[in-house]
Amino acid sequence: QVQLVESGGGLVQAGGSLRLSCTASGSIFSINTMGWYRQAPGKQRELVAVITSGGTRTYADSVKGRFTISRDSAKNTVYLQMNSLKPEDTMVYYCNVEGVLGRFWGKGTLVTVSS
Question: What distance lies between CA 94 and its chain's CA centroid?
């Protein structure tokens, strides 16, 4: 099993920045991909950005050029630097890891962007 602890959500004005962090513990040897998804009330969870163990990054079109995902393997931590935030970025953000043991989710952290 893998446990995930997220931090860094909060309230920010439009145009501002936030950085999310997610640290994994447990069977971390099994992890390949780490990333972030987000979900608005009543809508499906959507991919924000993921990064593989080899460093390949994938971003949703809606965040390209504004968000940057990075990974510190020594700390088993994935980060999401979010710049130029927009009100439509207001959602709960979930950390996700995938590997040989399956897929695991964090509890989520709320990001609220005020206009």
Answer: 6
pLDDT at 31: 87
Tokens representing 30 are: 């099994």
* Residue 29: both structure tokens together: 């040897």
> Dihedrals φ, ψ of 2, to 5°?
-125, 135
> With a cut of 50, which residues of the chain have pLDDT below it?
none
How far apart, in Å, are the Cα atoms of 58 and each of 13, 42, 72, 84?
Answer: 26, 25, 17, 19
pLDDT computed for residue 33 by the predictor: 96
The pLDDT assigned to 29 comes to 81
How far does Cα 80 stand from its chain's mean position? Answer: 6
Structural tokens at position 22: 């997610």
pLDDT attached to residue 41 = 93
| Secondary structure in 3-state letters for 11-74 | EEECCCCEEEEEEEEECHHHEEEEEEEEECCCCCCEEEEEECCCCCEEECHHHCCCEEEEEEHH
Maximum pairwise Cα distance, the chain: 42
